[in-house]
Here is the input.
Amino acid sequence: MRVALFVPCYVDQLYPRVGMATLDLLEQLGCEVEFPEAQTCCGQPMLNSGCDTDAAPLAERFLEIFTGYDAIVAPSGSCVSMVKNHYEHIVHGDSRHETIRTKIFELCEFLVDVLKVDSLPGNFPYVVGLHSSCHGLRELRLASDSERNTSEFNKPRQLLQMIDGITLADLKRKDECCGFGGTFAVSEEAVSCTMGRDRIADHLQAGTQVLTAGDMSCLMHLAGLIQRDKHPIRVMHIAEILAGYEVPQ
Amino acid sequence: MSTSTKFDHPTNANRFNQDQARTHWHDSALWFIREKRDRMSKSLPEWETLRSCASQIKAHTVSKLADYLEEFEKNARARGAIVHWAKDAEEHNQIVLDILKKHEAERIVKSKSMLTEECHLNPFLEKNGIEVVDTDLGERIVQLRQEGPSHIVMPAIHLKKEDVSETFHQHLNTEAGNNDPCYLTESARQHLRDKFMQADVGITGVNFALADTGGIVVCTNEGNADLGVSLPNVHIACMGIEKLIPSADHLSIFLRLLARSATGQPITTYSSHFHGPREGGELHIILVDNGRSNLMNSDDYRNALKCIRCGACMNTCPVYRRSGGHSYAATVPGPIGSILNPLRDAKHHKSLPFACTLCGSCTDVCPVQINLHEQLLTLRTEVKNQKQLPVSKTMPMRIASWVFQRPKLYAWLGGIGKFFLRNLPRFMIYNGMNPWGKNREMPEAPSESFRQQYAKRAKKNQSK
Ligand code: SF4
Here is the structure.
């Protein structure tokens, strides 16, 4: 399967390890992975700020660059949801979008639904706290959420449980937002930080040693607070754990 | 300047967050209700079916609203009600005043109606020398404090019992420092009893109006609506035109959803049906548009008219819980308020669509399946189109978009940015210009981007 790797711009610049882990993982699982180098940003920050006309040329570029692959995979539910669910407002019925919508996957979703992974190697003897990032949860439905009365499932959790030695932390609020929200983190700094600290407090009471999520953006915000407040929690993207990477010290 | 600050959500929210203990208390109080709602909704296996039925009924009603309104008017008249139409808040208030004048009414008791709040009826009537007493406990408390409600179902949820005790001590002469909820409730009850006895007219809101019977339904937990309209001879019911449902047959769906979503109760304590005036009395029903038909004509926002005002989106909203209802500076706060208010007045409420992380919890909690967070996203573009976004917000996006269209420039600038992040002295990164760094550390910049590592690896693989 010819898979295009979509690495969100801030992951490319600030978290290359997450990109490498995603690449390694997909290759370990037998995919032929390509990173189209012309890619930059999907346009989410612009659209989320109300600047649809600034997002439009980026969406155009995205469709251009990513057309023709069997699948497009990204280690970010939020960016995938942008392409899948929100592009239609800015590309207005472009037929390439209709195709791409069905071929783009968040990493965990791809592993579970497309590759149908049922075992993963490795040993990770830590208490892992899984943060359910909102767009993955409520827009891509990577897991059932606590608001709706539907049967329970959780794809990222399912994958983590395949790894030996892992203990998953039990949270009091299992799917509340961390408060990142893109530019919200800056324009509503006070609420954003209160929300983040509340999530971290929940992980502390649950004994989380390694905090993980499918979106590096939530983790960037939470890690910033953890570091400032000097909490004994390490932060890793789920791709790093699934690919068997070490806990960063 | 002062008015623009007043409406600015970040400023208000920041103030609210200064008192972290109180912020946490507010968050837990609402989360408690959200959890109760979760338990109650999960006790019904048909919950999601109910939601989609309710959503479809409302969508259908809105699509034929004019017909249903006519049907309602005809049937309500046939039962002896007097039906009025008001195109906006001003007309609504004038109609109420005219009725009051006709009856030489001086004292009014009111049972919670967000619509009259929306129309600012109280100050209008007070200016005309009429005493208006809100009779829901929470509403009365905020009325005594001369505040607006901070939540559409629990108007005084921002207040602790100590605050209530102080307010009652000041206005109702209760014992100072007595915070016993039973004592406080009893004092309010005594005080309100007098008001009920003296009232000339009772005003209520409407939760549901039934087109096929011409009746209206009012849901309360305290029974005050019933008392308020049973003692005086005249009952004025004020309703937004979107409160209509086609038939009494549909009511059960909404009654099951409403209370569970609002407070986690199986049903509200009183669901009172009014079909025509009582003997010797008068029933006036005022049908108010006040901007609603504009929503009806908009594909993007029509859905918002389905709202049954249960307040669940507020209880679940992580931002509302941590910024308080007053931070929205609007009659209806929270997610649904952040849609309705800017659509009415984008200039004053331009910060509201941004007071949201787009987490989507409101959309999944809403009993009538309004796509709240999607509308909030669309609304941001609307705010920009109305030229209400400051250049300080649009310019960075314009520049970023320009850079992102040029991958080589982007990669080069990324390298420079990372270099600065690694090498600049701390004070140049963490200062007043950088809100990120006020409470958080910046990410540590790596020496190479992913694309650089990828290119290196590809080269190595090739040479192998
Ligand atoms: S938008 Fe939905 S959840 Fe919010 S008050 Fe209206 S009906 Fe309730």
The beta strands of chain B are 82-86, 107-110, 131-134, 201-204, 208-210, 215-220, 234-240, 244-245, 270-274, 282-288. Chain B has two domains: 1-137+200-389, 398-463. The two ends of chain B are 67 Å apart (CA to CA). Residues B 261, 307-313, 336, 365-368, 370, 372 surround iron/sulfur cluster (CB under 6 Å).
